[in-house]
Amino acid sequence: MHDAIDTTFSPLQNHLLVALPEEVQTRIFPFLELEKLELGQVIYEAGGKLAYVHFPVDAIVSLLYVMESGASAEISVVGNEGLIGVALFMGGESTSSRAVVQSAGHAYRLKGSMLTEEFNRHGKLLELMLRYTQSLITQMAQTAVCNRHHSIDQQLCRWLLLSLDRLPDNHLTMPQELIANMLGVRREGVTEAAGKLQKLGVIDYHRGHITVLDRSKLEELSCECYDVVKTETDRLLPYALPKKSA
Amino acid sequence: MHDAIDTTFSPLQNHLLVALPEEVQTRIFPFLELEKLELGQVIYEAGGKLAYVHFPVDAIVSLLYVMESGASAEISVVGNEGLIGVALFMGGESTSSRAVVQSAGHAYRLKGSMLTEEFNRHGKLLELMLRYTQSLITQMAQTAVCNRHHSIDQQLCRWLLLSLDRLPDNHLTMPQELIANMLGVRREGVTEAAGKLQKLGVIDYHRGHITVLDRSKLEELSCECYDVVKTETDRLLPYALPKKSA
DNA sequence: AAAGTTCTGTGCGCTAGCGAACACACTACT
DNA sequence: AGTAGTGTGTTCGCTAGCGCACAGAACTTT
Question: Are strands A42-44 and B42-44 parallel, antiparallel or unpaired?
Answer without folding.
Answer: unpaired
